[in-house]
Amino acid sequence: MIRLISAISLIALLSGCNALADARAKRIDGRFPPLGQFVQVDDATIHAEITGSGPDLILIHGASGSTRDMADLAARLSTRYRVIRFDRPGLGYSSNPGDKTNSPLVQAEYLRKAAEQLGVHHPVVLGHSYGGAVAMAWALEEPDTRALVILAGAVLPWEGGNDDLYSRAATPLGEATLEPLASAFLPDWALHRVITNLFKPNAAPDDYAETAGAALAIRPDTLRANLRQLRELKGYVRLMAPNYRKLTLPIEIVHGTDDPVVSYEVQSVPMQKLPNVHLTPLPGVGHMVHHVAPDAVVSAVDRAFARSN
C-alpha cells in the first residue's frame, strides 16, 4: 500500500511538473520570440535568420544553442557575406520531425533543403561544437559546398561515454522525470552556472543569457531533443569520420587549446592529417571561440573563402 501511494504521489508530482514546464516554456517563448523566417522542409519547419549580402555563409550553432548564439558573429560577417543562421532541427524554433534528426547527417539534409529554398549557392558552412559535426555532414553530402569552418567542433569519435547526467536524462526514465523537473524548476543561477562552465577558462559576457536566449534550451521539447542528439552523436561521428579524407574543399578549424567541453587534442589536432585542413589553435581560450576570439573566427572565414577561389 505504501508503495502504491508513493507511486501515485510521484505520478501526480510529475504531472504537475509537466504542466509547470509547459507554462514556463510559453513564458520563455514570449521573452525570446523567433526573429527570422520559417521554411517548410518536408515534415519539418526550419527557422532561419538572414543578414547582409555577398557570398553565402551558413552558420550552425552547437548543442543547447539557437540562431541567437551566432548573432554577434553574424553581425561581424554581414558586411561582406550573406549570412544565413539556422536553428538546428529540434532546437531554437526549428521543429523536431522525430528521432531521425538525432543524426547530424539528417540534420544537415534538412538545413541544406532549407538553404536551397532560400537561394543559397556554393556556401561556406560554419559549425560550432555539435554544429561542427553537422557542417562536416553537410559537406559529405553536398559537393556544392565551397569551404568549411569548424569552431571547437565535435567531429571525431572519442574514448569513453557522454556525461553521466546527460546519459541518464536521455533515457526513458530520465525523460519522464529529470527533464520535466529541470524544465519546470531549474533556477536562473543554475542556468548561469552552466554558461560559466561553457565559457571556462574565459568569462562569459554579463548579458549572454539574455542575448543568446539561453532559457530556450530548457523548454521541455528542446531539452529532450538536445539530450537525445548528444547521446547519439558519438556513434554518428564514428561513421562519418572515415569519409573525411574524401573531402577536398578548404577546411579551417579554430579551437581553444584550453577547451574543457570539446577536447582540442582529441577533436582538432588529428584533423591536421588531412591535407586540406588549416588549424588555428587559440592558447588560453575555451569552448566559446566565436565570443571570446571573434577576430580569429572572422579571419578563418575570410581565409576559407579565399582558399576556395
Brief overview:
The protein has 309 residues and is an alpha/beta fold. The protein has helices at 2-31, 71-77, 104-117, 130-141, 164-169, 172-176, 178-185, 188-199, 208-211, 220-240, 264-267, 289-292, 294-308; strands at 37-41, 44-51, 56-60, 82-86, 124-128, 147-151, 251-256, 277-282.
Task: List strands and helices in order, with pairings.
Blueprint: H1 2-31, E1 37-41, E2 44-51, E3 56-60, H2 71-77, E4 82-86, H3 104-117, E5 124-128, H4 130-141, E6 147-151, H5 164-169, H6 172-176, H7 178-185, H8 188-199, H9 208-211, H10 220-240, E7 251-256, H11 264-267, E8 277-282, H12 289-292, H13 294-308
Parallel strand pairs: 3-4, 3-5, 5-6, 6-7, 7-8
Antiparallel strand pairs: 1-2, 2-4
Helix pairs in contact: 1-7, 3-4, 4-10
How would you characterize the overall build of this protein?
This protein has 309 residues and is α/β, with parallel strands linked by helices. The chain has a domain at 33-160 and 232-308: 3-Layer(aba) Sandwich (Rossmann fold). 46% of the residues lie in helices and 15% in strands. It has 13 helices and 8 strands. It has helices spanning 2-31, 71-77, 104-117, 130-141, 164-169, 172-176, 178-185, 188-199, 208-211, 220-240, 264-267, 289-292, 294-308, and strands at residues 37-41, 44-51, 56-60, 82-86, 124-128, 147-151, 251-256, 277-282. An 8-stranded mixed β-sheet has the order 1-2-4-3-5-6-7-8, with helices on both faces. Helix 2 (71-77) links the parallel strand 3 and strand 4. Helix 1 packs across helix 7 (178-185). The longest helix has 30 residues, at 2-31. The chain is globular, with a radius of gyration of 19 Å. The chain starts with a helix and ends with a helix. The model is unreliable at 1-14 (pLDDT under 50).
